[in-house]
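TICKET: design request
STATUS: open
ATTACHED STRUCTURE:
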């Protein structure tokens, strides 16, 4: 799977059902494995405000056709 294919999928928290954002970048480890995804979340309160955060690759439980399901970091 290519990064461009991952970027079209919506990221959903399995526990809360909350949409977490869209993938804008990845962090690769020194051995070439994906370490984490950088997500961008658009804030509803301010139309132009965007926040970036890091999602650990180990949190991903399922990659589907349209969405990526993730678990909470501390589960």
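STATUS: resolved
RESOLUTION: sequence designed for all positions
ATTACHED SEQUENCE:
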């Amino acid at each position: 799977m290519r990064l461009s294919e991952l970027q079209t999928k919506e990221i959903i928290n399995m526990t809360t059902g909350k949409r977490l954002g869209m993938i804008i970048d990845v962090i690769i480890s020194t051995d070439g494995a994906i370490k984490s995804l950088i997500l961008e979340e658009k804030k509803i309160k301010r139309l132009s405000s965007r926040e970036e955060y890091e999602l650990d690759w180990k949190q991903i439980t399922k990659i589907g056709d349209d969405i990526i399901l993730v678990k909470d970091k501390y589960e």
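CLOSING REMARK: The helical segments are 3-6. Residues 59 and 73 are 6 Å apart (CA to CA).
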